[in-house]
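Sanity check record (used in CI):
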Amino acid sequence: MSELLKKRTALEANGRFQHITPQTAGWEYVGFEAYVLEEGQSLSFATQSDEEICLVLVGGRADFSLCGRAIGELGERSGPFEKTKPYSVYVTAGDDVSLIATSPLELAVCRAPGKGTYPSRVIAPEDVGAEARGVGNNKRYVHNILPDTADADSLLVVEVYTDEGCTSSYPSHKHDRNAPPEETHLEETYYHRLNPHQGFCIQRVYTDDRQLDECMAVYDGDVVMVPEGYHPVATIAGYDSYYLNVMAGPVRKWLFTWEADHAWVNSPVYAQKHGE
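Expected output for 5-deoxy-glucuronate isomerase:
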């Protein structure tokens, strides 16, 4: 099995089933955790002086407190495949957050270095940008939870929907060189969900010289780590895909390079082929 694929594990006592740190991933910036809680279960997180986190309510509701101050119940959708925008909570360096699940809850915790530049805050659905990308069999729908235009020191967070039989994160692109304005170095995790849940999708991670070239069958709740290279996703007939991306690097800007061989899929030639 590829070292880039982190399989979903059995639930720990606190509901956690994914836990990735820079140390376990062998990189510098991105950490990721995923939890499933029953109604009434609680969690708390205290950020270090050099980190920030973003809690994404993938599905379900919870009562939240920030630095001991109650901010009320957050969450509207029961799960990601409702395709409505999520609630999230950004927690700056040195702050703490706690929650009590008021329904079954699926929670993602995104971590990266922070300096405490921006205050902690709720990211409500109306704060989340939405956009459709691509044409033909390369269509996907995006919720920009924490894009590079929003306030944060390092974190970039986005969720993506891809229908059955389509590609996503495609044409193949990469962001592994610290060379702005052409490209930025960003580590990335993909937290995958499939609908129906027994499905799988395919994700490939590869570099131009093919020193890295991994192709993985990814199931519901798995995480793919992208330290470098291109990283397209392909869905399988009968199964829709959701993934939550977390990115961070030395420069908080999403600048990437298309793989030259496949960039034509962005062109009018491909669109006209599909009548779009």
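The chain has a mean pLDDT of 97. If this sentence no longer matches the regenerated tokens, the check is flagged for review.
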